[in-house]
Amino acid sequence: MNLSERISGISESATIKLIDIANRLKSEGKDVINFSFGEPDFDTPPHIVDAAKKAMEDGFTHYLPSGGLPELREAVAEKLRRENGIEASADNVVITPGAKYAIYASVISLVDDGDEVILFDPAWITYEACVRLAGGRVRWASLDHIPDALTPKTRLIIINSPNNPAGYVLGEDKLKEIRDLAIDHDLMVLSDEIYEKIIYDRRHISIGSFDGME
């Protein structure tokens, strides 16, 4: 029995491959500085562990609404309104088991076979895999020449600011350019802002706060 062509076309994660190599070298006694994986260098804070334990002890272990815990969805919407200037309500929020699944679910919901998705190089490797799993095709673009990547098949633009792996932050002018292109060409924008708190001398702006990005 063979796997589907779609899944067979997805290559092994380079990040996981490097982690495996680093761990193997460590097990051989080599002195390794591992830059492969973005992970905190501390364990989960005790108050979070205690809260999780208490929830399980209290029987908070059953199915929730498919969109997520209503109180959590409202808390996320309130955060978006307060910190990001996005007029969101709980109805606009879906809770997922991690950011990677949120991205996959978004792409699979927006992209059909043959649709094209614009990515900016360098990009987190997971974006391309999600697009391919959805049956779409990646169009690599330069931030300086975004219109050159547009075709009649373009469906989605994925942006990541602050960026992984380059660390750059998109400014207001560039975000407005992307907003204008999306509106003019009836495109969707998927904005990955997971690193919004890891920022130094720049200001994080959510493209979702701009007019027309509702």
From TrEMBL:
Family per record: Belongs to the class-I pyridoxal-phosphate-dependent aminotransferase family.
Stretches assigned to the Aminotransferase class I/classII large domain: 30-201
GO BP annotation list: amino acid metabolic process
Keyword Zinc-finger among record annotations: no
Organism for this UniProt entry: Candidatus Syntropharchaeum butanivorans
Family matches, as SUPFAM superfamilies: PLP-dependent transferases
Cofactor(s) needed for function: pyridoxal 5'-phosphate
UniProt xrefs under Pfam families: Aminotran_1_2
One GO molecular-function entry: transaminase activity
Keywords: Aminotransferase, Pyridoxal phosphate, Transferase
Protein name: Aminotransferase class I/II-fold pyridoxal phosphate-dependent enzyme
Quaternary data: Homodimer.
